[in-house]
Amino acid sequence: MSRYYYDFHIHSCLSPCGDDEMTPANIAGMAVVNGLNIVALTDHNSSKNCPAFFKQAKKLGIIPVAGMELTTAEDIHVVCLFERLEDAMAFGEAVDALRDKFGEDIIRRGKFAQSPGEHMAGGLDKARRTGITKPLPREAV
What we know:
TIM Barrel
């Protein structure tokens, strides 16, 4: 039986909690260094870095998963994972269209008086308290 090591919640430089060094290529490279086999790129309200991440991950033997961390109007963070890159890109386009039509409040009611990392952690804690999400173990058998 094979063991797979994974992380289904990684942000790139497109997320407010990411930094400039978190490029798709660097994320794929660090996944290899850290022994991960499967990695999901889940930027805040965007899937735009998924195609570049897929290209780099496949070159390095990583199984890429396209995703997005969607922030709802209620400030709940939902990690959305997609079976196909095309589905993630279509979802990203739908999110962008809603943002263009209704403004940023349709996705998130910005409470960025605090740092982005605190904002993210608060949303995840709130989601865990309500039972919407449960932490997954990093190792799968």
